[in-house]
UniProtKB/TrEMBL annotation:
Its EC number is 2.3.2.27. It comes from the Eukaryota. SUPFAM superfamilies: ARM repeat, RING/U-box. Residues 658-668 have a biased composition (Low complexity). This is RING-type E3 ubiquitin transferase. It comes from Carnegiea gigantea. Residues 658-678 are annotated as: Disordered. The lineage of its organism: Eukaryota, Viridiplantae, Streptophyta, Embryophyta, Tracheophyta. It catalyses: S-ubiquitinyl-[E2 ubiquitin-conjugating enzyme]-L-cysteine + [acceptor protein]-L-lysine = [E2 ubiquitin-conjugating enzyme]-L-cysteine + N(6)-ubiquitinyl-[acceptor protein]-L-lysine. Transmembrane segments: none annotated. ARM repeats lie at residues 413-455, 538-581. It is an enzyme of class 2 (transferase). One of its GO terms (molecular function) is ubiquitin protein ligase activity. Pathway: Protein modification; protein ubiquitination. PROSITE patterns: ARM_REPEAT, U_BOX.
Length: 678
């Protein structure tokens, strides 16, 4: 069993039960004795010392049995099997007690841990009672040791250390004070941390990361969640307030720039678009009807069964009752839920308030975060340059995946001082500030605060002249999140330098920078007024050159998505046709392996044919390999790709029929002329 992948308190599931049990048992004692005897136990010190002593006695017994080559009876085999199982459990418990980052959590579970040790030690006595020591060829000294061990294991008291109980009571006091909206004394918190040897920012951060992992493994109804949440709030407060300086190397690896937007370009949809227009609940099985509107399958089926033949949203008459699964939107909703730790109840009922679907923090955690947010806002405003940098980094960590943290940090006013740090001449400070703002921009209140405080021009400044390339790509990601709001799309597009700066990043940026810039432009193009600005900035030639020169399929798909959006209007089609991109697109629709990329190609070809007329259709009709590819997409592509491929096939067939008719008509006229003019 790979213990590193297990949650704490996992126990061995298999007992050995074969005549060679003593060999396996003898081998299992070494990790307990050699690895743990010299290790530091933050808690359970007295219990672990005593258990290791008892196991050492057992090992002497095992060695004598092994060396004498005794023939195993059924009772002896059973005894050794039970001892092996108990030793495995003890080994697991000791691993938990010394696991990196688990010090505070293990302290708060001292009663449970000591009870598990008690059960394991009692099992020694039970197993040893089975053994008939007089029948074994072992020395009198070893026999007496084993008999004494059995008595001690049966009668000995195994309870939490008094020091552990006292420290645990201190933590409970601290959590109660947080819950009562009273900021605990920092000296009290420092004494608890010192007791557990949590002595640096890095030590504290390891504790936070351990709790994050435990919470991610919890089920919604897990009783551990309130405790984990409270301890998380306490440790985050300590990391930000108690420990003044970052460890030199630790923070470099704790958090990497996580700005890859990845996935489908539809990520820029507002989460409100994930609700069914009928039920107003989160869609679990979105389907599209003939009018192009999307609903949750259960809701629209109920609507149709009631005899309603009109689209609930537009009022249009339905041409058919066919429901086409919207797999792209379904994947997007699933990714959104995963990113934001939203779960949909198994009963099928979805909450109308998305915030209720997220694991609720404990009151102590919420208030600890509020105190911490106020502290960080003060440091960002009045601190030294080093303190401002650390505060920005703390916010960057706190906002990585926690929606409540984002909300509280925005509420107490951390956005304005973070925006001020964007003008810093220190690359690390500018990076931490822009990364923190990017994560805050995922929250609607964060978007409002950034725009209200005049942050757009500062973001564009970093996008154009960031001190590092990574900062430019983070700025592009921030603009992407701002573009999820319709009025901000208009504002960003009307800002003269925004779209040209994104296009420059597409040309010069890293792969991640290109993807972020493409995503941001795609979001801005959801407002049609921005199409003209993007075309004037020369986006089409840049995208065509990128598609022709890069091998990354994800970048190609994102570029095609932007081209497909531009091709929806006549000016965009003209710009695409002027670059001679049609042969490239026709080649890609055959060669791309991604369904999304193929769908975008077909969309571009369809829009070009619609806007370009017979001149474009004639070019497509001359490509013999195109039609088989389109037929393949009809049967094997996504629902959207299939629909568009079918429409393009119809256009090509009508063109060929019309061309054949013209040729036949032309040959008839020629024959008539030859009859009249011999």
């Amino acid at each position: 069993m790979d213990r590193t992948s297990c949650r704490v308190y996992a126990v061995p599931r298999v007992r050995v039960g074969y005549n060679g049990a003593h060999i396996s048992l003898h081998g299992s004692k070494y990790p307990i004795i050699t690895d743990y005897k010299s290790r530091f136990f933050p808690t359970q010190k007295r219990i672990t010392r005593e258990v290791i002593r008892q196991v050492e006695i057992l090992c002497v017994f095992f060695e004598e049995v092994r060396d004498n080559g005794f023939t195993f009876t059924n009772s002896l085999t059973l005894c050794f099997s039970e001892l092996h199982f108990a030793l495995q459990k003890i080994q697991f418990l000791m691993q938990d007690c010394t696991r990196e980052g688990s010090k505070l959590y293990i302290l708060m579970r001292s009663q449970f841990i000591s009870s598990q040790f008690r059960v394991s030690v009692r099992s020694f006595a039970t197993a040893l009672d089975i053994v008939q020591l007089n029948s074994l060829e072992i020395s009198i000294e070893v026999k007496e040791l084993v008999e004494l061990l059995a008595k001690q294991a049966q009668r000995g008291r195994i309870e939490p250390d008094p020091d552990d109980v006292f420290a645990m009571e201190r933590v409970i006091l601290i959590l109660n004070q947080f819950e009562s909206k009273f900021e605990p004394e920092r000296g009290l918190m420092k004494r608890v941390l010192d007791c557990l040897r949590i002595l640096s920012w890095g030590d504290c951060n390891k504790e936070v990361r351990f709790l994050e992992e435990e919470m991610s493994n919890c089920e919604d109804e897990d009783r551990e969640i309130p405790l984990l949440s409270s301890l998380m709030g306490f440790l985050c407060y300590c990391r930000g307030v108690i420990f003044e300086t970052l460890d030199n190397d630790d923070h470099q690896i704790m958090d990497q720039v996580d700005v890859k937007l990845g996935g489908k370009m539809l990520n820029c949809l507002n989460p409100e678009d994930f609700r069914c227009p009928i039920s107003l609940e989160l869609m679990t099985d979105p389907v599209t009807i003939s009018t192009g509107q999307t609903y949750d399958r259960a809701s629209i089926q109920k609507w149709l069964k009631a005899g309603n033949l009109l689209c609930p949203k537009t009022g249009e008459k339905l041409k058919s009752a066919e429901l086409v699964p919207n797999s792209a939107l379904k994947n997007l909703i699933q990714q959104f839920c995963l990113d934001n730790r939203i779960t949909i109840s198994r009963s099928g009922r979805k909450s109308r308030d998305l915030s209720r679907l997220i694991i609720s923090p404990s009151p102590a955690s919420t208030e600890a975060m509020r105190f911490l947010a106020q502290f960080l806002a003060g440091r960002l405003t009045y601190g030294t340059d080093e303190q401002k940098n650390k505060a920005a980094y703390e916010i960057r960590l706190l906002t990585k995946s926690n929606i409540l943290n984002r909300s509280i940090l925005i509420e107490v006013g951390n956005v304005p001082p973070l925006l001020d740090l964007l003008t810093s001449t220190d690359p690390d400070t500018q990076e931490n500030a822009i990364a923190a703002l990017m994560r805050l921009s995922k929250h609607s209140n964060g978007q409002k605060a950034i725009i209200k405080e005049g942050g757009l021009m500062l973001l564009i400044m970093v996008l154009r002249r960031g001190l590092k390339m990574e900062l430019r790509q983070i700025a592009a990601a921030t603009i992407f999140y701002l573009s999820s709001v319709d009025k901000y799309r208009r504002l960003i597009g009307s800002t003269r330098e925004a779209i040209p700066a994104l296009i420059e990043l597409i040309k010069d940026g890293s792969i991640c920078g290109k993807k972020n810039a493409l995503a941001a432009i795609f979001g801005l193009l959801l407002y049609h007024g921005n199409h003209e600005r993007a075309l004037e900035a020369g986006i089409v030639p840049v995208l065509v050159d990128l598609i022709a020169s890069i091998e990354r399929s994800d970048v190609i798909a994102d570029s095609l998505a932007v081209l497909a959006s531009l091709a929806e209007n006549n000016d965009g089609c003209i710009a695409i046709l002027q670059t001679s991109a049609l042969p490239l697109i026709m080649g890609l629709v055959k060669s791309l392996s991604s369904q999304a990329g193929q769908e975008y190609c077909v969309s571009i070809l369809l829009s070009s044919s619609t806007n370009g007329g017979n001149e474009v259709i004639g070019i497509l009709a001359k490509e013999p390999a195109l039609m088989p590819t389109l037929y393949s997409l009809v049967t094997e592509g996504t629902s959207h790709a299939s629909k568009k491929a079918r429409m393009l096939i119809n256009m090509l067939q009508k063109f060929k029929e019309s061309s054949s008719s013209s040729l036949a008509s032309g040959s008839g006229v020629q024959k008539e002329r030859s009859d009249h003019f011999p």
